[in-house]
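Collaborator request log, item 7. Partner lab (contact: R.S.) asked for a structural prediction of Carboxypeptidase family protein to inform their binding assays.
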Amino acid sequence: MSRNRLIRLLPATFASLALCAALTVEAATPNTVSGRVLDERGKPVVGAQIIVEPAMFRGTLFTKTDAQGRYQSIELNPTTNPYYVYAYKEINYHGRHYCVRMAGDPGEYQEAFNAKQGVVRNWRFKISGESDMASSSNGGQWWGGSLAFENVSTEDGKFIPFDSIVELRLTPDGPLIDGSVGKPIVKTVRLSAGIADIPVGYYQLSAFLVQGGAKTKLRVGTTNRDEKLGDTTMILFDGFDTCGHSGTFSTTHVWLGRP
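Returned to partner:
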């Protein structure tokens, strides 16, 4: 093999080795649950809270992931089988405290397990994509955040019909909630549809009414008080501040007004 060909192959080889290392199947230890929590970039999630609880008895157990994102429970009592296990990450983000539920990796981890032979349960910190739960007022359908739009005024001449087309621009302000770098988002939607599954972060939002090829800038805000609306508003998605829930991020409401 020529030296140039070897050099070209090395990056792909190293990338494959890194992926294999992240996906290595770990052996289960009898009477325990263990695993790893990674983010969507494959980086370990340090300090994720793991909750283990018997399905039919009291006695909830807690542990946390280490610097490599790994965890292992203490020895579980096989006489209290079966068990459930959940994973969460507590985060202080732009002045708000969140407890974000982690996703099973792979698949859904909502079924109880028998610890006698030991079980491995891995998790992912997801901030977008379809989730493992049905849509509800607690979020659920998406790992990302969602926006719904309301009229600040119902008066004739000021009301924006819900079948109107609006262009929405979201610019991330700093890293997303998992520490990754966000990208500007531009969406053109019907007002009544809103936007779903936005990677969870802190965004500056602006909105434009689209009519006959022309765009009219709208006033926006996160309150229904007309005087509080401005050319832009900051969006911080609504979530849970305590662990133990089965939701994701609930729909965040934004109010729109004509100029």
